[in-house]
Design goal:
- The chain has 102 residues and is mainly α.
- The chain has 5 helices and 2 strands; from the N terminus they run ββααααα.
- Strands 1-2 form a two-stranded antiparallel sheet.
- Helix 2 packs across helix 5.
Amino acid sequence: MTTTIAGTEVSVNAEGYMTDLNQWTKEIALEIAAQEGVTMTDKNWEVIAWIQDQYRKEVPLTIRKVGKSGITDIKEFYELFPNGPLKKASKIAGIPKPVSCI
């Protein structure tokens, strides 16, 4: 299925997560972040870049892995992406929801 985000038609799944990372842009990320109530800072972008890199390497993501990444710790991750940090960060990063997320 497709939807329009930031004026661009993108492929998404039933939960609204993008299914093709190649369609991702910073403009799309900013619109998704606004919908999720997240204000993007340099630190948020750093986490998003790391998450996309892990996805490209096919590394399964968990909150614990993000906390051990050296990019951010778990406490800061929750501050950057409140109320479901991995779900929100994944959505903003343009990747499918990680299997570890309920």
